[in-house]
Amino acid sequence: MKRPSTLVYVILLLALFSCTPWIVWSSSLCHEASSEVVRPHSVSITDFGAVGDGVTLNTKAFQNAIFYLNSFSDKGGAKLFVPAGQWLTGSFDLISHLTLSLDKDAVILGSTNTDDWPIVDPLPSYGRGRELPGGRHKSLIYGQNLTDVIITGNNGTIDGQGSIWWSRFQNKTLNYTRPHLVELINSTGIRIANLTFKNSPFWTIHPVYCSHVTVQNVTILAPLSSPNTDGIDPDSSDNVCIEDCYISTGDDLISIKSGWDEYGISFGRPSTNIIIHRLVGQTTSAGIAIGSEMSGGVSDVHAEDIQIFNSRSAVRIKTSPGRGGYIRNVYIANLTLANVDIAIRFSGLYGEHPDDAYDPDALPLIERITVTDVIGENVNRAGLLQGIQGDHFINICLLNITLSVSKKVPWNCSYVKGYSDLVSPKICEPLKERIFPEHSSDCYYLSNPLKSSSNRNKGGWLMSW
């Protein structure tokens, strides 16, 4: 795809985004859990001998500090403060009722020695490491079976120094699957806010088997050439709210997952009630993706006020025969796109399998996907919507979409069924039937055409927080 000159692109981007009133980050849709929770006990990492020179390895200092603070977990919890400096460390575990707080000039640096990232068991919903059979490296910041954990700071930084891992992946010299930057397992009441995350070895923030997770006001950065550096990957998790984030990485900005083939089907924990609000970013992959590991099911996803530029695609659903599971009740609205290759992409034959034991007849159910209120300039193709023969993706609904497209055939659709209204350029044949008035109830979140996308009620599931 031909790229505009830098000056032309900047003018285009400013023109597009200045016309969108929601660029001013405003009201929160997330659960109002404050990062300013007062913990009655607080220590600094320097109290445990840590040295912030970027050279001294501080893994033991982090581990000892958290071990000490664990004695206060039933006394109102505790805070571990990381002051200004560069704090080199290997993997360390969090505890319940903990606030990890970084000064604005604090940088936690991941060790470049792979031995400082221990090996842990594969996730049961994956059955093996995502990249290689067997175990996987533990994330830099790790925790499991936790309650009430806050990771925050005045825009302090957590830097995984991932280039060594990217090289080993590209050179095929890995012995185990690469580590995430932050991974929390089977935990509840998690808040990650007001931080910058950089250069993750693999996926950046990975809540898996978690409930009530909030990620707010974070910046996630990795080179566009870095492999699989997803931004935020809710995985077999529920009641997740992601809000006011800027992400620029080498893979999906947000990717919603729920396990891999027979392991995900057997584990059977879906990702549900996911809200994404005010996301800005660029990537060599997708802005918002679902899959490809979605075998436990994904449902009730609401994403609004999204700005994607310089990216492969804006919205992508990825699945395959053998995945099983479902993706249903997805609502994505208010997208502004600039310099995007494919605006909307569904891939029904995507991705590899964990082993030869998967069932090729385990077909996924993809239904009730709504994309509405989209504008885009310098888009190569409006949509590449490819379902699965004998397993159509159904009730796909597209509404109020206006794209400036360079391809002579802007839409390519196969094995999909659905409806549309107010789509330009002209929609493909399988989606030509109109939504209103007779099919609005078939389209997720469009049963009341008088509701505007900006005023739709998100309160139903948020009331459960």
What's the Cα radius of gyration?
22 Å
Q: What coarse outline follows from CA principal-axis ratios? A: globular
Order of helices and strands: HEEHEEEEEEEEEHEEEEEEHEEEEEEEEH
Q: Determine the structural class based on helices, strands and strand pairing.
A: mainly beta
Measure the end-to-end span. 44 Å
Average pLDDT level: 91
Proportion in β-strands: 35-45%
Say how many strands there are: 25
Total helix count? 5
Low-confidence region ranges: 1-26, 449-465
Largest β-sheet summary: 19 strands, parallel
Percent helix range: under 10%
Provide a concise account of the structure shown.
By secondary structure, the chain is mainly beta.
Polypeptide structure, described:
The protein is built from five helices and 25 strands. The strands form three sheets. It has a 19-stranded parallel beta sheet that branches. Strands 5-10-12-14 form a four-stranded parallel beta sheet. Strands 8-9 form a two-stranded antiparallel sheet. The chain has helices spanning 6-18, 59-69, 163-170, 261-267, 459-462, and strands spanning 41-44, 53-57, 78-82, 85-89, 92-93, 98-102, 106-110, 119-120, 136-137, 141-144, 147-159, 182-185, 188-198, 205-208, 211-221, 238-249, 254-256, 271-283, 286-290, 298-318, 326-347, 365-386, 393-405, 411-414, 416-424. With 465 residues, it is mainly beta. 9% of the residues lie in helices and 44% in strands.
